[in-house]
């Protein structure tokens, strides 16, 4: 739940004043804004030919990752060509950038929210293009993916404006002006709680205030690990969200993770004093969707009020240990192919969708509203074909009215929170084979960015409808 005052609304402007001081307030630990300092000298600006100093503002300078910002450049010459450039150093010390070409209006102003970008890593009128089109700078390691690990610190982005239309060499040129913006995954007051109970490993995020709040059990996919940034954002929007770790070779053996593990996790969240026990949901991405569908259909313990599944499938029910599920998957590995760039196309492993009911989750048994979010160019999982089969199964069972399907053409498998940069392919560790590969996720950058923004809005609306405003799911 965001506020409209305090640290959310601060000008991010830097202007010609000799030595520029950057205010460094944070919601948590003190932030070192020197990241990338050798890449840019933030204390220097140059004036335009008419003597006025170009002024770059980014507002708000501190905001949630899923909030839009306003970027305005003033004091330019009329019809002056400029390049806007964003730079971020990841927690792995890799540099990411995006840039766009603009021409100022007759008043010497560029307003990104309404002016057209003429080229760069994005084009068109795109208010957040400097974030979602980010990519590793030339010469970076291959197969990178930008993911926030420590959600208690911000994603710090340096935004600069340069004279002319540039496409490279930003580190060798002094910008006309630079601003720093912080993109957070937690709103002020969100609590982060480590969960190590009954063998369950998770992180619980609680919204500010006394509660109680609706609960969301958040499951990521087959990449494993404890991924927190989606749950922290959900808590910032009023949900007690628990990011669950269920694939971690060091601590959790797949032979020991089964239905009981997910049921214990659900109960831990449900029994928390700040959680409304009768207003619970499950949210899964990729393999996490298979878990979500299986629990909703078969579990006697997990009885969610609604479920959200992103880029998933009902094939390979999770009704046994994860080790056994992965062993079943290995039988179909011959359907996995590799393209000419040595990128793995995984989606064929479940194609054609089996007709044998024993090989699929019986989604006809699901008794709560279900939202499926799918990508039209998903190269990792046949989620669109799965959704079509689920729709037929639910129609036959009489619970089709509980199903909502969103399909985004030209989006890829990894539909994440808004403005997360698009990754058509990235490095990936196959949990079952312990093998490093390059996985093809699919999607095109601009349609994928649209899918992430639209889907997130609809996911939040779906959760609010069924956890905040609906007394109970109706069959």
Could you characterize what this model shows?
The chain has seven helices and 21 strands. By secondary structure, it is α/β, with parallel strands linked by helices. An eight-stranded mixed β-sheet has the order 10-11-13-12-14-15-18-19, with helices on both faces. The longest helix is centred in the C-terminal third of the chain and has 24 residues, at 445-468. Residues 1-50 have low confidence and may be disordered. This is Peroxisomal succinyl-coenzyme A thioesterase. Residues 257-468 form the BAAT/Acyl-CoA thioester hydrolase C-terminal domain. It comes from Labeo rohita. Belongs to the C/M/P thioester hydrolase family.
Query: Tally of extended strands?
Result: 21
The first-to-last residue Cα distance is 31 Å
Mean of the pLDDT scores? 88
Low-confidence stretches: 1-50
Strand content: 25-35%
Provide the structure class: alpha/beta
Shape: globular
Radius of gyration: 23 Å
Largest sheet: 8 strands, mixed
Question: Which series of helices and strands comes N to C?
Answer: EEEEEEHEEEEEEHEHEHEHEEEHEEEH
If strands are numbered along the chain, what order do they take across the biggest sheet? 10-11-13-12-14-15-18-19
Number of helices: 7
How helical, in percent, are the residues? 10-25%
């Amino acid at each position: 739940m965001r506020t409209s005052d305090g640290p959310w609304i601060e000008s991010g402007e830097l202007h010609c004043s000799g030595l520029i001081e950057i205010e460094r307030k944070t919601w948590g630990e003190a932030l070192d804004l020197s990241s990338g300092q050798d890449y840019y000298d933030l204390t220097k600006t140059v004036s335009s030919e008419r003597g006025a100093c170009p002024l770059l503002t980014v507002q708000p300078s501190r905001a949630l990752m899923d909030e839009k910002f306003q970027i305005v450049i003033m004091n330019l010459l009329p019809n002056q060509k400029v390049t806007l450039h964003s730079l971020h150093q990841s927690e792995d010390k890799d540099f990411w950038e995006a840039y766009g070409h603009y021409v100022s209006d007759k008043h010497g102003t560029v307003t990104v929210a309404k002016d057209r970008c003429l080229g760069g890593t994005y084009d068109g009128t795109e208010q957040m293009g400097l974030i979602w089109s980010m990519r590793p700078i030339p010469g970076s390691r291959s197969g990178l993916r930008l993911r926030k690990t420590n959600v208690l610190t911000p994603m710090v982005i340096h935004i600069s404006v340069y004279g002319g239309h540039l496409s490279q060499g930003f580190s060798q040129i002094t910008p006309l002006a630079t601003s720093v913006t912080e993109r957070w995954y937690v709103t002020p007051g969100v609590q982060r709680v480590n969960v190590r109970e009954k063998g369950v490993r998770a992180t619980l995020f609680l919204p500010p205030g006394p509660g109680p709040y609706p609960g969301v059990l958040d499951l990521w996919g087959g990449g494993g690990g404890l991924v927190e940034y989606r749950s922290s954002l959900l808590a910032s929007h009023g949900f007690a969200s628990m990011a669950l770790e269920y694939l971690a070779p060091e601590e959790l053996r797949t032979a020991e993770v089964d239905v009981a593990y997910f049921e214990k996790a659900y109960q831990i969240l449900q029994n928390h004093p700040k959680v409304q026990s009768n207003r619970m949901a499950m949210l899964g991405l990729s393999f996490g969707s298979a878990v979500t569908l299986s629990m909703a259909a078969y579990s006697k313990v997990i009885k969610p009020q609604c479920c959200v599944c992103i880029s998933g499938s009902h094939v390979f029910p999770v009704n046994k240990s994860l080790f056994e599920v992965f062993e079943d998957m290995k039988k179909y590995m011959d359907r996995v192919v590799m393209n000419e760039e040595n990128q793995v196309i995984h989606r064929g492993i479940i194609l054609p969708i089996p007709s044998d009911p024993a090989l699929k989750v019986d989604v006809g048994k699901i008794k709560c509203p279900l939202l499926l979010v799918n990508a039209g160019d998903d190269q990792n999982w046949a989620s669109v074909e799965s959704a079509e089969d689920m729709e037929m199964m639910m129609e036959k069972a009489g619970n089709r009215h509980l199903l909502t399907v969103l399909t985004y053409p030209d989006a890829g498998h990894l539909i994440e929170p808004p403005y997360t940069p698009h990754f058509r392919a990235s490095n990936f560790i196959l949990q079952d084979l312990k093998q490093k590969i390059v996985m093809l996720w699919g999607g095109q950058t601009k349609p994928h960015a649209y899918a992430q923004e639209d889907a997130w809005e609809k996911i939040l609306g779906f959760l609010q409808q069924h956890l905040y405003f609906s007394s109970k799911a109706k069959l």
